[in-house]
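The instructor's notes for this session suggest beginning with a concrete chain rather than abstract definitions. Hand out the sequence below and ask the class to guess, before any prediction is shown, which regions might be ordered.
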Amino acid sequence: FLWVQPGERFVQDCRRDRGRSVHSRTRIGTMASAPDPITSSLSIMRRMPPNKIEQNLSGLLNLIPDQTDELLQRVDQPLEEATCSVTKKKYLLCDYNRDGDSYRSPWSNAYEPALDDGFQPSDALRAMEVDANTLYDSYREQYYEGGVSSVYLWDLDTGFAGCFLVKKTVQGHAFVSDGGWDSIHVVEVTEKGDGKATYKLTSTLMLTMGVQKASVGDSNLSGCMTKQKELTLPVTEVKPHIVNIGSMIEDMEIDMRSNMDNLYIQKTREIVNSMRRVTGAPKQGQNFTANLNAAVAAHGASRKVDG
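After discussion, reveal the predicted structure:
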């Protein structure tokens, strides 16, 4: 099992409550000396295989059930799919469109199962959400050539926040028997009032690749990466919020994919190749054989005979 993960990771505590900031970050690398259950749980999750996040999280929730809501908000999990009963389109389930046991469809704006008092964005923000889903769906199709995407927006006192999601799974590929890509982009927008806005972007990428071949056996390469970026950009009719956010997400995904490929995956390959040769057994020359025979003979001559 090969596990790819950066040395330092920020765990985001993202709230959907109106009027609260969506980014309350806890740095795992600088934990307090007296760990609480949440801190200890996050430390355990950071050291567990990323391709078993759901299984490991379920075990922790059984140990500390009173911390269920807090852990679910702090630990990123692989995204799940659902189908809108109204539009028959697929959408992604996460904490950002969940209210109780119901999930809001970005296509119909209705909760499934039905919920009378579920959280809803304002009319203006809902119109932006519809446009964002249409544009992000095209972005997904061009870059991923498949998969499912969803965008969810909610109001804040100083602006708004949003979550941009993409999930793609691969099965029976020529090189990957079973794999998945989950990208979660959470952005907080603070409007400055002078024609500018500050965008705080936290992006999480979860990658799993399973290979089953006779030449390599069963192997799994998986990892999780989180990066942050903050920019202050002008907001105009030519470059509205959706354009600014889309450009930041596109640049972030390109950067994270490059890091995954060129740094972590290539480094893992280099380490494995340095430990094990795949081009045949080592050659034993005449000198090596003669020295080995001499060492064995000398050891035998020095042994005492029993009796």
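Then share the key points. The chain has a mean pLDDT of 82. The chain has six helices and 13 strands.
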